[in-house]
Amino acid sequence: MVNRIFSFYPSKEPLSNSISKIFNLLLLWGNNVILIIAFGYQFARHELPCPICLLQRVGIILISIGFFLNVRFGIIPTHYGVALVGCVITILIATRQVFLHITPGTPGYGSSIFGVHFYSLAVLSSLLTIITIAFLLVGHNWEERIKLRSLNLLTRWEKIAIIVFAVLIVANFFSTVLECGIGKCVSDPIVYQLLNHHNYHNSK
Fold first, then answer.
1. Is 135 in a helix, a strand, or coil?
2. How many CA atoms lie within 13 A of 162 on its CB side?
3. Phi, psi of 33, deg, nearest 5
4. What's the rounded Cα separation, in Å, for the pair 72 and 75?
5. CB 152 within 8 A of CB 158
């Protein structure tokens, strides 16, 4: 049992590199969960994301792409760079939304978790991700070159994480098209514009 746990990754690498891979997998799964929760509120509670919210999803997807590249092709600084760019974009966009609702007496947009709105959580999670990446960059053994790994060498959880991430990207694309249609996204969406437009023409 112990042998199985510590042979999670089949290659013989320094412990720091193995830990980095595990953290990258956990971070990828963490962002997958964030996007799944966002979809849950969108479809279960019928809370359509605003244009700024959609841009935050793009930032989170960009962060995930960096971790996906590390999981799929091996850990290199460039992949972390992609994730860091995604973090900066997410922080800038989410902070903009925080400032829109920071005035006392101004209601926040959408639901909250434990009293904290999603855009505030986006800022906090991105900051924590930056800190985590900093520790991973410092702790990784860069003298050991990580070769590209073929798909059949990926663990089950890595494969599932990649598949879920790919599905979420496609789902976000189609969800955005349905919500915004072929025009500009409305600032406070309550209906899917493309479906509403289709139903309107069918009723005529």
1. helix
2. 14
3. -65, -40
4. 9
5. no
Judged on CB neighbours under 10 Å (0-12, 13-18, 19+), 197 is middle
Residue with tokens 């089949």: 10
Amino acid making up residue 200: Y
Q: Which of 76, 72, 64 is nearest to 140 (CA)?
A: 76
Residues contacting residue 42 through CB under 8 Å, at least 6 positions apart: 48, 49, 175
Alpha helices, H only, 101-185? 118-139, 156-180
Residues in the chain: 204
What is the number of other CB atoms lying within 10 angstroms of the CB of residue 155? 14
What is the pLDDT, as a whole number, of residue 141? Answer: 65
Contact at 8 Å (CB) between 94 and 126? yes
Write out pLDDT tens, residues 57-90.
999 999 999 999 999 888 889 999 999 999 999 9
* Residues forming a β-bridge with 113: 116
Segments of the chain with pLDDT less than 50: 1-11, 146-152, 200-204
Three-state secondary structure readout of 100-114: HCCCCCCCCCCCEEC
| pLDDT of the residue at 20 | 85
